[in-house]
Amino acid sequence: DDAFYRTDVDGNLVMASPSLPRLLGYDSLEQVIGLNLARNFYVDPSQREVLLERLEKDGSVVDYEVELRGRDGSVFSASVNSHFYLDASGAVQGVEGVVRDITERKQVEDALRLTQLSVDRAADLIHWIAPDGRLLYVSDSNCRRHGFSRDEMLAMTIFDLDPSMTGELWRTHWQDLKERGSITFETVHRAKNGEIYPLEVTANFVEHNGREYN
Fold it and tell me: What would the DSSP string read from start to end of 157-205?
């Protein structure tokens, strides 16, 4: 699905793979060869200038995200990998590289960011715990209620928060959770200021990519 392209020094297309016109909504290579990349396809032509500046500085650009406009006017997100191509004497003849449509990836990333934000801002205290009791994630509300920063909490274990929890009780709890899938119970937690307060906990067992979570 990647589309190869080559432009001259002015940004006009001089060579491309057959996948480029398909990506841009054209029927053939002949329809796109000679068109100016910035004027005809970049939603924001200044992004082309930024690309050239980065090429001048670094020699190549990897995963540079731009917005491109197809023949029908539709706009999509693309990732561009580019470098200068030179003649036998070393003089720059233009730019060549590969373009990939990342619209679907961007949509997934946006959905994940929204999900993460929703979890972070949840009123209930949310945390993910590893099988050995290490805290892997804590919500904003969790940090506020316990009085610790996120970095402090992510260096802790469930044994630091729950004064009633022992290694043996944790192993029994984990096995019970794996068998039942979800458990609701009451316990207590200790805040940074020493306050011990009661909690009703709903724990869920999750397995993802071969790793287990509470």
Answer: BHHHH-TT--HHHHHHHHHHHHHHSEEEEEEEEE-TTS-EEEEEEEEE-
Q: Which helix (H) or strand (E) element contains residue 207? A: strand 206-208
59, two tokens? 């020699």
Distances (CA, A) of 48 to 28, 43, 54, 149: 24, 10, 10, 42
pLDDT score at 121: 85
Tens digit of each residue's pLDDT (9 = 90 or more) over 59-95: 899 999 999 999 999 999 999 999 999 999 989 999 9
Residue 202 has pLDDT above 90, yes or no: yes
For the question of whether the overall pTM of this predicted structure is more than 0.85, the answer is no
Give the H or E element holding residue 14: strand 13-16
H or E stretch covering 110? helix 103-120
3-state secondary structure of 113: helix
| First-last CA distance in the chain | 39
